[in-house]
Amino acid sequence: MEYHLTIPISLEMIKKLHVGDIIYITGNIFTARDEAHKVMLQKEKNSLPFNPSQMALFHCGPLMKKIKNGWQVVSAGPTTSGRMELFEDKFIEKFGVNIIIGKGGMGEKTKEALQRHGAVYTAYTGGAGALAAERIENTPAVYWLDEFGMPEAVWIFTVKDFGPLIVAMDAHGMSLYKKPE
Amino acid sequence: MDETSIERGIVSLIKKAETELPKDVIKALRKACDVETGVAKTQIETILKNVKLAKVSQRPMCQDTGIQTFFVQVGTAFPKINNLESWIIRGVQRATKEVPLRPNTVDPFSGKNHGDNVGEYIPYITWEFVGGDKVMITALPKGGGSENMSKLGMLKPGVGIEGITEFIVDEMIKAGGSPCPPTVVGVGIGGGADIVMKIAKKALLRPVGERHREKYIAAMEQKILEMINKSGIGPMGLGGKTTVLDVHIEKAHRHPASLPVGIAVQCWADRRSTMVIHADGTWEVQ
Fold it and tell me: CA-CA distance, B266 to B177, in Å (whole number)?
């Protein structure tokens, strides 16, 4: 099935999604890699300068260019999600994120958290950074840029029909990724 | 010799690698697109669309513009050998602003990003001296996701060629979707721990689809390629027939007690470009 969804997405809709479905999303997303996960988990949810539960989480360290009135997205594909396995179950629980965008898949702890809290992990084609940038309409904010540098900072993007995202791990405990034997 | 012109040349060399995928890789991806169906086909189609857009809009195809890596063949009669390193470094700093590139050099202790893709040991340059008065520089920007799947195995010589094959196939199956498959796998066999990793990376310079000149090594490349693709990991690890586009092996003589095997993985964005600098300072990027 193919869906065009607007963020935030209801639990009812999340439960309709199954592995192999293709979705395109419209709304706000935030980037977070290793450093951002670590720092956000140390903070209280309401002390954050943005509300993660109203956005999708994007595993991404974008290539940005400073322009006159803000920032231009040059290239912004996903980074390897496996590194965030250390944090993701706690992250989903604490911040109520219900849609994750990354590449390469995640481990057992995340798989269980997706099922327990009603969330999906979606795969965007790794390396397709130029194409992804085309679907990002603007960059309303950036946090922790000075501390972490461009790749690790948290960037807020407003996206339109961002995809194709493949539902690769769903809220029913299913995954498209093979377990290594 | 116009030094700023040569620095501009280094910027075009990097820009070419970051924005235009070599023809041999595109050809292999198109072939993969023909044999795949479903989700796997969607992945390859998205990659091809992205490659086209990057070329037309002259922007890096992937946001991970990599660690800047260069293989340099220096003609010993080239008049300004001493300046080569600083031209490359300044070219990388300029390219970071002009292409632009993502700042990718982080101090491992402080975590501070240097901001210009330069730092201790980086850009990473391999020097080779040859006859003549020309310099040939090949750029191989190396992304972090695929680099993280590199492996060094100090195998026991008794395991033989079969053991080597098993090690490579196992490691690539374990890597799953992480290195952005379909990948190109560079393999080094023999030498010592450092030599084998270096020749594994050097093996990535060979165009996709080109076999080793020695028939028995070529046959081993083909066999490993087929074995990994049979795993069904597929594009981005989402299942499919194409997990690797090619396998390239290079060998070095080894110590009787050691059998080092090195694996260097390159994502589908197998970015390469080459530049020639002539003795009078004129240059072209191929």
Answer: 13
Which chain A residues in 92-131 lie under 8 Å from chain B, judged by CB atoms? 103-105, 123, 125-131
Q: How far is B98 from chain A (nearest CA, A)?
A: 10
Q: Which residues pair with B283 in a beta bridge?
A: B277
Which domains are assigned to chain A? 29-166 (3.20.130.10)
Of A62, A125, A181, the CB nearest to B43: A125
Give the mean model confidence (pLDDT) for residues B99-128: 96
What integer best gives the mean pLDDT of chain B? Answer: 97
Structure pTM?
0.94
Is A5 in the B-facing interface, judged by CB distances under 8 Å? no
Catalytic residue among A4, A18, A37, A117: A37
The DSSP result for A13-59, as a single string, is HHHH--TT-EEEEEEEEEE--HHHHHHHHTS-GGGSSS-GGGSEEE-
Query: What mean pLDDT, rounded, does chain A reach?
Result: 95
- What is the DSSP track for A67-132? ETTEEEEEE--PPBGGGGGGTHHHHHHHH---EEEEBS---HHHHHHHHHHT-EEEEPPTT-HHHH
A163 CA to chain B: closest CA distance, Å?
Answer: 10
Confidence of residue A100 (pLDDT cuts 50, 70, 90): very high
Q: Give the pLDDT confidence score for residue A181 in this predicted structure.
A: 44
ipTM over 0.85: yes
Residue B86: HSE in the Cβ half-sphere, 13 Å Cα cutoff: 6
Tens digits of residue pLDDT in A50-70: 999 999 999 999 999 999 989
| Contact (CB<8Å) A127/B176 | no
* B268 contacts A180? CB cut-off 8 A: no
CB < 8 Å to B103, chain A:
149-151
CA atoms within 13 A on the CB side of A10: 3
Q: Is pLDDT at A32 greater than 50 in this prediction?
A: yes
Is-catalytic flag, A37?
Answer: yes
Residue boundaries of the structural domains of chain B? 3-16+61-143+271-285, 144-266
Buried b (16+ CB within 10 A) or exposed e, B179-211: bbbbbbbbbbbbbeeebbbbbbbbbbbbbbeeb
> B17 pLDDT exceeds 60?
yes
pLDDT tens digits, one per residue of B37-73: 999 999 999 999 999 999 999 999 999 999 999 999 9
